[in-house]
Design brief:
Blueprint: E1 4-7, H1 13-24, E2 28-32, H2 37-48, E3 54-57, H3 64-78, E4 83-86, H4 101-129, E5 132-137, H5 150-170, E6 175-182, H6 188-201, H7 205-213, H8 225-235, E7 247-250
The structure holds nicotinamide-adenine-dinucleotide (NAD).
Nicotinamide-adenine-dinucleotide binds near residues 35, 89 and 184.
C-alpha cells in the first residue's frame, strides 16, 4: 500500500536521511525545513529518483497555522498522512542565568510544541484509516541531562511524555507513537554546537568532540544519520505494530551508564 510520510526538518541531517529512507522504501514524501532554494530543489529531484511523489512545504515549526497547513497540504496532495516524523530541532548552549529568553521559547516551540501541532492535525487523518505511525526524534537528552542545555533537555524530556500520552490515546486505532533517542550524530546541528561548547567550557574544539561529546558515548564513535533512519524505517513498518509508547536508544551505550 502506498504511504505518505511527512518529515519535519528534513532539509538536513537526520530528517533528510529519514526522508530518503522512506522515499527509497516507496513512500510519497513531504519535505519541510529551511535552506537555500537550490539545495532544496536538488533534494526534491534526488528523492523523486526513487519513483514516488515528493513535495516541499516551508512551514516554520514555531507557527501553529503553518504547521496545520503542512499536514493539510500533505493530505490534499497525496490523500493521506500515514507516517509522521517529528524531527525538526535546534539547540542553544548556555548557562541558565545567561540563557536568552527568546531562545528558550524558540527551542520549546520547535523541539516540543511543533510535535503537538503536527499530531493534532494528523491524528484525525490517521484515525480515519485506522492506521498510522508517529515517530518523534527525541534524543539521549530525553532520558538524561547535560549542563548548559536547559531548554533542549526540557523539550526532549517533554517529547518523551507526549509520546507516551499519544500512544495511550491512539493504541486502539492502529496508530503507534514512539521516540528515537540518538546519542551524538555528526550533523550540522552538532557541528554548530562545537564552537559554543568550546567557548562556554574554555577548551579546544577537538577537546569538545573527544572529551565532552564522545566522553558519554562508550563506543567512542558518532552515530550515523543512516543508522537513525534505519530505526525510523523499522518503527514505520508493519512489524513494529505492537511497539508503542516507548523509545529506542541509538546512543552507543550512553544511557546505560
Ligand atoms: P540539523 O540542523 O541537521 O537539521 C535540523 C532540521 O530542522 C533542518 O532541516 C532545519 O531546517 C529544520 N528546522 C530548524 N528550525 C526549523 C523551524 N523553525 N521550522 C522548520 N524546520 C526547522 O539537525 P539534526 O542533528 O539532523 O537534528 C534533527 C533532530 O535530531 C533534532 O530534533 C535533534 O534534536 C535530534 N537529535 C540530534 C542529535 C545529533 O547529535 N545530531 C542527537 C539526538 C537528537
Amino acid at each position: 500500500m502506498k504511504r505518505t510520510a511527512v518529515i519535519t526538518g528534513s532539509t538536513s541531517g537526520i530528517g533528510l536521511a529519514i526522508a530518503t529512507a522512506l522515499a527509497r522504501d516507496g513512500a510519497d514524501v513531504v519535505l519541510n525545513g529551511f535552506g537555500p532554494a537550490d539545495e532544496i530543489a536538488a533534494i526534491i529531484e534526488r528523492l523523486k529518483g526513487f519513483g514516488n511523489g515528493v513535495i516541499y512545504h516551508g512551514a516554520d515549526m514555531t507557527k501553529p497555522a503553518e504547521i496545520a497547513d503542512l499536514v493539510a497540504t500533505a493530505s490534499r496532495t497525496f490523500g493521506s498522512v500515514d507516517v509522521l516524523v517529528n524531527n525538526a530541532g535546534i539547540q542553544h548552549v548556555e548557562k541558565i542565568e545567561d540563557f536568552p529568553i527568546e531562545k528558550w521559547d524558540q527551542i520549546i516551540a520547535i523541539n516540543l510544541s511543533s510535535s503537538f501541532h503536527t499530531m493534532r492535525a494528523a491524528i484525525p487523518l490517521m484515525k480515519e484509516k485506522k492506521k498510522g505511525r508517529i515517530i518523534n526524534v527525541a534524543s539521549a537528552h530525553g532520558l538524561v541531562a547535560s549542563p548548559f542545555k536547559s531548554a533542549y533537555v526540557a523539550a526532549k524530556h517533554g517529547i518523551m511524555g507526549l509520546t507516551k500520552t499519544a500512544a495511550l490515546e491512539l493504541a486502539e486505532f492502529g496508530i503507534t507513537v514512539n521516540s528515537i533517542c540518538p546519542g551524538y550524530v555528526l550533523t550540522p546541528l552538532v557541528e554548530k554546537q562545537i564552537p559554543d561548547t568550546a567557548r562556554t567550557r574554555g577548551i579546544s574544539e577537538e577537546q569538545v568532540k573527544q572529551d565532552v561529546m564522545l566522553k558519554f558515548q562508550p563506543t567512542k564513535d558518532f552515530v550515523s544519520v543512516e543508522e537513525v533512519a534505519a530505526t525510523a524505517l523499522f518503527l514505520a513498518s508493519d512489524s513494529a505494530r505492537q511497539i508503542t509508547g516507548t523509545h529506542i536508544s541509538i546512543d552507543g551505550g550512553w544511557t546505560a551508564q
